[in-house]
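In response to a reviewer's request, we include the raw inputs and outputs for one of the modeled complexes. The two entities were modeled together in a single run.
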Amino acid sequence: MRRRVVVTGLGLVTPVGCGVEAAWQNILAGRSGARKITNFDVSDIACKIAAPVPRKSEFPDRADAFDPDSVMSARDAKRIDDFILYSIAAADQALADANWAPNDLGEEAQYRTGVMLGSGIGGLQTTYEASITLHEKGPRRLSPFVIPAMLINLASGQTSIRHGLKGPNHAVVTACATGAHAIGDAGRLIMHGDADVMVAGGGEAAINRLGIASFVACRAMTTGFNDTPEKASRPYDKDRDGFLMGEGAGAVVLEEYEHAKARGATIYAELCGYGLSGDAFHITSPAPEGEGGYRAMKAALGNSGLKVSDIGYVNAHGTSTPMGDELEIKAVEKLLGDHASNVLMSSTKSATGHLLGAAGAIESIFSILALRDGMAPPTLNLDNPSVETSLDLVPHKAKPFNAKAAMSNSFGFGGTNAAVIFAKVD
Amino acid sequence: MSDVLARVKKMVVEHLDVEEEKVTGNAHFIDDLGADSLDNVELVMAFEEEFDIEIPDDAAEHIQTVGDAVKFISEKVG
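The model returned the following structure tokens for the whole complex.
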């Protein structure tokens, strides 16, 4: 009998707030994190908007604003990239939520707890600034902290050092599927006995000149809503014109079921299905009919032990790009068959923008919370769907549902696909 | 000399996030002030920038205490 894996802790740093309950309530209320970019020059870039993490320094009155000083000293924060800072903050929250502190529990707990935090891009701002320093001042002016600040696996490394986690230390890099792959792969490590507890998820901080301009260059970003940022991310709507970039991190604590039960941990849900696939088609475009995504979902459902009718909510990849959204609808319809008309599917990227490597992690958390509360978050700005579908795309307003399981989809550049399925635990 | 000492002290306090009283002439960056090898590299770079001098790698290896730094810098800026 295979070891079961459950979720016992959650952590979020998002464009709609820092902290799990705050971010979730903002998502349910349909609040957008989009705004105009003001902290760097965008006068010559076609996209002038993004969904950054609201910081305490900008929003002193918001209780859910992110305060870097509450995580570490300004000196330490200067030596890591923001994607690591966000990842550490989310991991801190998740471990506290799970009431799991290996540093206080001794060696055995430390050896049996690991980390799998990924990022799509890693320390882009660090790399960007180091390139300018190298060009303007020469190699002797490069900080010894450039490399440890930008390496993707340093989110896992830093988190392990901070919390004394001596089990598997790994990182995922699969573009916009990173967060979902990290959670799925970490679950497998528990299932196979490599660890009893894993901190898993993803972080991203690519809202800078290089990040925005480069995504504009590959024609993936929204450019037509610079004056109305909150309307820019509009998955499935006929006026959508590309994704809005978000940033932040999501982390979950995954735990072997008996381990969680024995210590009386609060169990949010079971990670019961995980599927992966490759498109083998194109570097940035999804395969025709979304067939790669379909195979990932089918594999996840296949190993979940669930029936298709158990799925009541799908948190879509739905990035608000012209082509991807419709292909995903086709793939989900094919998976669900006649059951599609009973299912709610929404894209929370309509509120958070696209967090790239963190997307799959925060959206897994939103799926788990949707299941917990029996409430599907809305797809904002969905005024006129571009295609007909029997799926309920939850336009504008959150909607109640009652089901056993929820699925979260994530698809990345390079044709990499992941689907994770969470189910209620009786 | 005293000006160099004051400036070095201030930089060490800022870079290593330590209390000023601990930053004496004999204080060893790694053993007494909690620095690691990367902190040392960064500190030497900061000295180069602050005093507009070049500290070659072989010289940097011998700058282990606050006093070492003050002595080297004072000779350079002399």
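As requested, we also summarize the result in words. The first helix of chain B runs from residue 2 to 16. Chain B touches chain A through ten residues (CB under 8 Å).
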